Amino acid sequence: MRVEMIPDSMTPDFHTALRRWFRSHGRDLPWRAAPTPYAVLVSEFMLQQTTVAAVIPYFERWMRRFPDIATLAAAPESDVLKLWEGLGYYSRARNLHRAAQSVTAQFGEIIPSDLAALRSLPGVGPYTAAAIAAFAFDQCVPVLDANINRVVARLFNYRENITTKAGRDFLELAAASLLPKSGGRRHASALMDLGATLCRSGVPDCAACPVHHFCKAVDPEELPVKPAKKAITEINDWRSFSRSGDSIFLIESPGPTWRGLWILPPGEPTREPLVTLSYSITRYKVTLGISHGVPQPNWTPFPLSSLPPMPSPHRKALRLILAKKPDGLAREEA
Ligand code: SF4
Known about the structure:
Layout: H1 11-25, H2 30-33, H3 37-47, H4 52-65, H5 69-74, H6 77-84, H7 91-107, H8 115-119, H9 126-137, H10 146-155, H11 165-177, H12 184-197, E1 233-241, E2 243-244, E3 247-252, E4 262-263, E5 275-281, E6 284-292, E7 300-303, H13 312-323, E8 330-333
Parallel strand pairs: 1-6, 5-8
Antiparallel strand pairs: 2-3, 3-4, 3-7, 5-6
Helix pairs in contact: 1-12, 3-4, 3-9, 9-12, 10-12
The structure holds iron/sulfur cluster.
């Protein structure tokens, strides 16, 4: 398939149109106010698979508790996970913590600007390295998150699957052809905001788009092309609630997803659960049912006033049980 690039002679006009639009329509985000390498690093880890709106309060809280890389590196992992509690995908918190320790040990507390050095940090892949290079160090490099992928695929009317190697290579090449000679931070931020606000998934607002003169999309609502989503698998997970005075019993999560967090112990299925709630994780829809349990030797009591970090569904189930009437049945979507 032949795909035409925007001619070199037109890219200054493209940059001018995008820059003007960004000046008046760019999003006001807390990590953009003072885009230090540390603030950008934290925001990029938090934004992986999470919306901007959900991240903002966590980011602000995080920067108050861990204002710099050295403070984060020195913190116990349980403190890091506790502050991340509710944001999900906890491997990001563990990797961010390890990345801070790595920057402290290997780079003298200075986050590197070099792409290869950034990639050597735990949890930093090609996208995150490019995002830190652009947003923290103002480098002109292609930054390809979901929003920019969509904008670029549409601008160039790319009609192949963007998740294949050929698709990724094309997007990298096309995004590189759009780069300005300076101002990489503003350019990447503008493309990202364009994707988040006007060139959104589904039906874009092309009439309001500052670069519609350059756009080759014929049926933009069909782009970008991606493989069909994997089917959702439904599973049941039975857990126990057990209390002794003001303490409840938990176990440390054995699985990789919630490693370092504490969860309700395994339970038996019952027709009259204390609580049921549903939540989604990757391609699973989980129905969590809670029954009364008898404490086992490997269960650990925690005072309700100082619970360890817990994943949201288990924390919410606990809250519902503690709040419900003695004969009531709580049922809620997580
Ligand atoms: S014209 Fe429409 S499809 Fe093209 S970049 Fe703008 S919003 Fe996206």
